[in-house]
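Repro:
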Amino acid sequence: MTDKPAQIYTTFGSSAEAHQVARTLLDEQLIACANHLAPAVSQYVWEGEFCEEREYPVLLKTMESAAKAAMARLKALHSYDTPAILCWSADDSDADYAKWLAGQIAK
């Protein structure tokens, strides 16, 4: 298999939005799995002002071949003006898991 699993990380302002967007990406077969992580406190500077907010991190699992489409759709669905959308390849993955993952993604 030359196509590798990939992971996309993002955060949302609410748990409800995180679940809704993840469900859409699953229904559209752009991702195979969404791991909703515990709420986190994010600190950052936005438009010159210090911010500290509760956010809801999500790790989305897909294949490299679908990652760009998944990221574009995620950005379109996201309520933030500039959401954090980070993607990386999983160069080493369990072969059986990678096969299952690939089978969940639309061709």
